[in-house]
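Late entry, evening session. Most of the bench is empty. Finally got around to the prediction I had been postponing all week. Sequence below, unchanged from the version circulated by S.P.
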Amino acid sequence: MAAFAWPVRIYWEDTDAGGIVFYANYLKFFERARTEWLRSLGLGQQHLREQNGGMFVVTDARVRYLRPARLDDELLVTAELQAHGGASLTIVQQALLKPEPMNTTPTLLSEGTIRIGWVDATTLRPARIPSTLLEILS
């Protein structure tokens, strides 16, 4: 299965004083791609909470920064399930500079591994991911 990809355009608000994307914004881009990946599978965040009584929360984030993105760049931000346990998912993500028309290879800007855990929406205590969700995600 190919990685899910979500387009992101870089705006002024995403950049720092040096004119490059502020490092913490990659976590926002990764969050959006994970959310849209889940939505593409019919697992919108609000729906998960209402139908299953739980939600995903980030429990660990590891990010490597390789090259900067700049104002007006177009990125593709990916999300791909790497592993799952009974109560957590590990998702690998990349921020890629969308290639120019003459080039077919995107440039890797940042990559990360994000672990999300399933918690009870009321108590915020860890819980097992419902088996029906795991079937959809696998």
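Two things to note before I forget:
Helices lie at 25-40, 45-52, 131-137.
The chain is about 20% helix and 40% strand.
Will write this up properly tomorrow.
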